[in-house]
């Protein structure tokens, strides 16, 4: 017959091992020492192996089998504590899981900061995270696959959704330093960019079908995601707009050059929280929305960003003459 130790037996075994004696364990558990000894004896009988060496020692010492069993006992009792915490959270209304869809336009550092604190605050809540482009965030919320969405403006108003502006972002037209547009030492015109390849992200959701945003070139390469667009622009294969939060370090290092192009609309746009009207967020999801609102309030606006880039250019050492 296979051994079937009880959770109580494992707890007593763990307490004896950690306190170093049967008497100390009896005090910690508030039980008679005889009960502790009897419990350990029954556990050893079930397992058909000794867990402690008792002869010749004032204090019980774990056998090699006992050391191996101790790790199993710790893991099983640890899992029990996780289950108890989860049950307590569910009874208090805390979600078992939060599904969130986040736009690539949301600054990545803000995402990391919020999720780091989320893990610390809600260790029992599982997270299902989707990061995508354009209309994907809205689609995931409307379909119920995401509890909340954090992304750009709602492209098509929907009465079944609740939206709230919680921050801002903006796009900048950029190119690699070896790109022909980067070599033009004056503000760029439409004529300058018309014949150059512009990299554009395609909206897989279809919500922007037939609509292009800031597409100025006659030649376009369409890609599926912002990360691919970023890498291709850095490689000099075209120019295009990228979120300021993504390219901040590239602009500082010179890996990308900001294009002075008035025809490219560079105004700030809102970042919104989204949820279904019929599906109010629980405590953890509500906290996440508030955390993003707080974190995004620290993000620089467009004027501050340009001022930082201008200061960087002014303090950069002059290039050595060839």
TrEMBL record:
One of its GO terms (molecular function) is DNA-binding transcription factor activity. It comes from the Bacteria. Keywords: DNA-binding, Transcription, Transcription regulation. InterPro entries: LysR_HTH_N, LysR_subst-bd, WH-like_DNA-bd_sf, WH_DNA-bd_sf. Residues 5-63 form the HTH lysR-type domain. Transcriptional regulator of the ttuABCDE tartrate utilization operon. PANTHER family: HTH-TYPE TRANSCRIPTIONAL REGULATOR, LYSR FAMILY TRANSCRIPTIONAL REGULATOR. Belongs to the LysR transcriptional regulatory family. This is HTH-type transcriptional regulator TtuA.
């Amino acid at each position: 017959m296979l051994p079937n130790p009880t959770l109580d037996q494992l707890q007593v075994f763990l307490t004896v091992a950690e306190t170093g004696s049967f008497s100390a364990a009896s005090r910690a558990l508030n039980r008679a020492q005889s009960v502790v000894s009897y419990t350990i004896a029954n556990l050893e009988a079930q397992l058909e192996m000794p867990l402690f060496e008792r002869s010749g020692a004032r204090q019980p010492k774990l056998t090699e089998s006992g050391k191996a069993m101790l790790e199993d006992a710790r893991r099983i009792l640890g899992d029990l504590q996780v289950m108890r915490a989860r049950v307590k959270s569910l009874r208090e209304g805390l979600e078992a899981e939060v599904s969130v869809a986040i736009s690539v336009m949301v600054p990545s550092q803000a995402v990391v900061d919020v999720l780091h604190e989320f893990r610390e605050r809600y260790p029992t809540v599982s997270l299902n995270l989707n990061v995508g482009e354009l209309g994907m965030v809205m689609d995931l919320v409307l379909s119920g696959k995401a509890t909340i969405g954090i992304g750009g403006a709602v492209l098509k108003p929907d009465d079944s959704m609740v939206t709230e502006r919680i921050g801002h972002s903006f796009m900048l037209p950029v190119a690699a330093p070896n790109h022909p547009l980067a070599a033009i030492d004056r503000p760029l015109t439409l004529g300058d960019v018309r014949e150059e390849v512009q990299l554009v992200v395609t909206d897989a959701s279809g919500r922007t079908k037939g609509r292009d945003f800031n597409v100025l070139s006659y030649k376009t390469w369409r890609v599926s995601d912002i990360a691919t667009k970023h890498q291709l622009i850095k490689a000099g294969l075209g120019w295009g707009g990228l979120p300021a939060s993504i390219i901040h370090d590239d602009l500082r290092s010179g890996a990308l050059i900001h294009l002075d192009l008035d025809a490219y609309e560079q105004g700030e746009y809102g970042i919104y929280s989204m949820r279904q009207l019929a599906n109010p967020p629980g405590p953890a999801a509500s906290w996440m929305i508030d955390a993003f609102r707080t974190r995004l309030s620290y993000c620089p606006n467009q004027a501050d960003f340009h001022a930082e880039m201008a200061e960087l250019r002014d303090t950069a050492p002059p290039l050595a003459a060839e």
